[in-house]
Amino acid sequence: MDISIGKVLISETVDRRCKEILEEAGVAVDCYNSMNKEQLTAQIKNYDALIVRSGTKVSKEVIAASDHLQVIGRAGTGVDNIDVDAATRHGVLVMNTPDGNSLSAAELTCGMILSLARNIPQAVTSLKAEKWERKKFGGLELYGKTLGVVGLGRIGREVAVRMQAFGMKTIGHDPFIPANVSAEFGVANLPLEEIWPLCDFITFHTPLMPSTRGLLCDETFLQCKPSVRVVNCARGGIVDEDSLLRALNSGRCGGAGLDVFEEEPPKNISLLSHHSVICTPHLGASTSEAQQRCGEDIARQIVSVIHGDGLVGAVNCSKLTKAFNPEYQPWLRLGIALGAASRALLAGSNVQVVTYGTRLNGIMDVFGRAVLMGILRDQVSLPINILNAPFLAEEAGLKLSSTHEISVPERFPACGGCSVIINTHAETINKDHLELLGSVLGDCPVLLAIGKASFMNAPLAGIPIGGHMLILSTKPGVHVLSTVLGTVEEAGSQLMFFTSSSKDDGNQWSIVRISNPLKDLSVLKTFVLSIVQFCV
Fold first, then answer.
1. What is the pLDDT of residues 200-211, one digit of tens each?
2. Active-site hit among 90, 205, 229, 235
3. pTM beyond 0.90
4. Does pLDDT of 371 surpass 70?
5. CA–CA separation, 302 vs 323, rounded Å?
6. Looking at 157, 282, 300, 404, which residue is catalytic?
7. Could you say which of 24, 194, 264, 394 is catalytic?
8. Fewer CB within 10 Å: N-end or C-end of the chain?
9. For this structure, is 468 an active site residue?
10. What is the pLDDT of residue 504?
11. Is 235 a catalytic site residue?
12. Beta strand segments in 335-467, E
């Protein structure tokens, strides 16, 4: 996947090193301290990439207003302020910096736990009011208490390890972390229903999504220990605020440390003013070290993508990292070329892709997307790329199935290859179908066969496929080279090469590369059975 970024918009304050790193890579950068929706919507059309923190809302309207936006970079972890689905549909890569603020967020969480245990903020406020209330602010030791960590990613595990130093027993829940992995950093990974009754303290470190919204609510509070203390420095909405207030008032919850809220700035004054609530204005990443790391990380990640050095922090294409690997670029060009050729030859609605050989193991999905790009190019309203090809294909009524086989059939070179079959109607192969075979020799995509007609007898054991091309079929013995040459020259173009295949059930295919497309194929149509033109 080729990404070319010449101009970047930074819509809110980030560390100065972010701008410096991008400019050192030859990228122009415009910086703003903040931008509202109207300003961002008006400006975004002028930029190839956008860098934001949590204060910028990148809505579908903003994304739709962009003419050539390719990357949205989040200098931080959470991306709930970005419409990731809309970005993906428009082929925009979304990236974050998952490591940049992990330590700062973990340390704030640990501070919240300590403050809840010893009532530190309340005691400070009392003493500043010239009161001496030692008995009022008695607390409890953390030693021997059980801490439940919901979400065992980078931040969750950092919290667990630090609180283990206080002698806390750490249990947790994360459906994406194997139990043997969490055991390595001292956390027993348990089902949620087993977590609630065991915890003296619970802290949350998950993204906000439908499955985590309201995770701690009236129902789950009833399953918790009486006077459980709750910390949320992840995302507002994971803890239902109305349920939390009811639990605090009833004594079911003994205290809460909140850095995030369902609405920011928060308007639930009853919750904020509760004597057992410690609250801060979303300070998880608000350290100079975290801001510097996040700014530097997102800049370096964008530069890495520009240079084709790899993909780090991808949110909406984490399974497509090989699409950014230079080693596989020739194979993606092959997929696009075979897709374009198959579309020109047969307008089918079902596509079957098979990749062969160990070299192609793991890029089946990426290759299938490349084929869709070739088929749908110039057929859809949005620019198409690896990210949005499946979405646009679905909207166009195109179905794709992909499989991979380790063994390489004899009809392919030893390095492997691929088969693209396009059908007109049914998902199974029928008489109205076309199969193209291709491979990559060196770094050159080549066409090996159309149906049973092979080009393996060509000098390069296949036809280099790219540029402006004609594919035509004739009956055996019909020689059209001179006619093609004359037509091409008369149109002001040049014939780059002309190669014919073996016979296919009595017919023969020929591949022609020309320097410029032909506006009129009618002259050639009188000499051939069929002819199509396409460009890769």
1. 999 999 988 899
2. 235
3. no
4. yes
5. 15
6. 282
7. 264
8. C
9. no
10. 61
11. yes
12. 350-356, 399-405, 417-423, 433-441, 444-450, 453-454, 463-464
